[in-house]
């Protein structure tokens, strides 16, 4: 049976195992902090904790980056939606202003037509009064 990496004791008999240096492969006495051949740190638990901590740190950084990207994307989409609403409002206002302008022009035409009709009526009334004399 093979012992899991980082084990300090044999899984079958409980005998103390040496720590194999991950850099050079030399077996060192259990409990030593650095490899006697290359000087690399050998603390398996410390290395495991640092590896896990580094993995969590990388995951946290990735989540923070993704969260920031998502926030930027959402802000961009919100800005785009706001711009669409603003453009729709501008179009509605422009159409309302154009409709008001058309109504004003119709009103002017109606007033002009009424003025012409009144002038014609006055001319006819004056003509009828002059002829009746």
Account of the protein in words:
- It is built from 1 helix and 2 strands; from the N terminus they run ββα.
- The chain is mainly alpha-helical and about 130 residues long.
- The chain has a two-stranded antiparallel sheet with strand order 1-2.
- A hairpin with a 6-residue loop joins strand 1 and strand 2.
- It is rod-shaped and about 145 Å long.
- The model has no long low-confidence stretch (mean pLDDT about 85).
Query: Approximately what portion of the residues adopt beta-strand conformation?
Result: under 5%
Instruction: Count up the helices.
Output: 1
Which bin fits the share of residues in helices?
Answer: 55-70%
Tell me, what's the shape? rod-shaped
Please write the string of helix (H) and strand (E) elements: EEH
Question: Spatial order of the strands in the main sheet?
Answer: 1-2
The poorly predicted ranges are none
Looking at how many chains there are and whether they match, the oligomeric state comes to: single chain
Structure class: mainly alpha
Number of strands: 2
Query: Radius of gyration, Cα only, in angstroms?
Result: 46 Å
**What summary fits the major beta sheet?**
2 strands, antiparallel
Report mean pLDDT, rounded to a whole number.
83
Distance between the termini: 140 Å
Top keywords for this entry?
133 residues, mainly alpha
Outline:
This protein has one helix spanning 44-132, and strands at 19-20, 27-28. By secondary structure, the chain is mainly alpha-helical.
Layout of helices and strands:
Blueprint: E1 19-20, E2 27-28, H1 44-132
Antiparallel strand pairs: 1-2
